[in-house]
Queue: 3 jobs
Job 1
Amino acid sequence: MEIVEIIKKVVQELILPEFGTIKKENEEIKGLLQLTNQRLDNMNAHLIDQSRRIDETNKRIDETNKRIDETNMGLIARMDEMNRSLIVRIDETNRWLIARMDGTNERIDQLYRVVVRREEQDKLEIRVMNMEREMVVIKEELLKLAA
């Protein structure tokens, strides 16, 4: 039995203190693991909170984009209506200007006809005066021949 006691004694002197050290280190590792797990849980909670906040921000952004799109559609509709209105007004103004220009052109044409008639009348007056002079000369020659 002495061998069993020697082995027992060697085990108690060499292996049991190592078991104690291993047990102590295991406890320290468990403590560190628990702290690490707690930190991971805190980080997960923080990430969940950040994710929730990001989702809320995205929802607000989506709502803002929707309002912007609605506003844009309203503005586009108003601009289209304004364009149609301006086109109608421009067309009306063009028709009015064309009518005025046509009237002005007609008056210019009438004035031209009057000026041409006056020139023709002046030419006729000159021709009549020339003919009257010629008649006076012819009458004088006839009187000379008759005398």
Note: The longest helix spans residues 2-146.
Job 2
Amino acid sequence: MFQMEGLVSSSFCVEVQYDKDTRTFSLSGPVGQVNAAIDSIHNNLHQLANQESKLKEAKDLYAKTVWHWIYKDTACVGYQLKAYSELPNFTIERAYCDGKDRLELVTTAGKQYCVDLRTLVEYPATNKGDKVHLIRKELIKGVFAFLF
């Protein structure tokens, strides 16, 4: 869950120790460097908390609304729906709910895709002709009540 690696840049001339039991940091070194390292730790922990919050929101949203792209399967001679994973789904849904016309998605491999929310298509940023259509599905989970 918690990783010390990369929490403080190696450019700071400080020694950092973390006590997992008490959840405290100990820093030693020149005062200016210690203060800068403290600021860096605070900023990195804040970013980590925001990232964890976004991941939780994405997971919660995925249980309610899922975006798909339509894939033409030549082997089956038909179309299939391919669901976006949680984070891209979250990004698309937020843009859709905010009334945005377009957004850009970047894969973990660095490939960029454009999503046009007016026409509900996605295409690689380098090839507008390679379009796939999008579908938004709301997953409704309700409780049925019978009134007598």
Note: The chain has a mean pLDDT of 85.
Job 3
Amino acid sequence: MAWQFLLQRQDAPRGYCWLQGQRPLQPGVYRLWGRTTERQPTTVEWFWPTDSGRYQYRRREVTPNREGVALLLPWTFWSAGTWAIRCWEEQPNGTWESRSDGLLVRVTPGCEPPQLAAFHWQYRCRFPWHQTLRVKGWVLGGQELSLRIHDPLRLALVLHLQQPLPTEGRLVPFCLDVAIPQYLYQRVLLAVVQVGGTPLGQEWLLVNPLVTPRLTPELTVESRSLADLAEQAATILRRRQAGSARNRSTHG
């Protein structure tokens, strides 16, 4: 699966794609199309900013037509802030694979240069001990690209890759390949890609379903849903941090 995205503005010329030009992305009414070589149902998630500073979240299933085209987001008013859309699927078989295509768009009220990024995640597990992660895509804006892999339940950073970005103001393709070290195969890992100098970034939770994960009793992998697992992991982290704070105050 490799989605291509087409962002249209309601008051713009019909054939203009906002992801290919240098015009600033200002608040307005947009819709987003996607195109892929696959024709099977796909889960689409999107996040958008609100006046309170929080983000709203929505999730639904879409099925591409015979040409591989699907309407991912209908005509919607895009307010200032960072909009994130992600299409993902999982393929459990002899080689288990989780794939995700994401688009991040920075909408600004002024005439700032565009800040855009598209990410394609591919996480593969082959029994018994082989895990790889590939993150590729393109970036417009920013100073450098970084990929961090965390062990969130142990508050540890286990891997960090960096790639500088040119400053010419053009689309820059990238590709980062990582072989997960064997000692991490039974861990729940959180991969974070961040475009330095911008608010653009994306997270992806990595869980190897071919082995028995070393999890706390509160965390399960029954659904292998990124949103569910991330919420459970965040809850566990909050409990541990609160417990550590109580212990410090008690011994203080």
Note: The two ends are 54 Å apart (CA to CA).
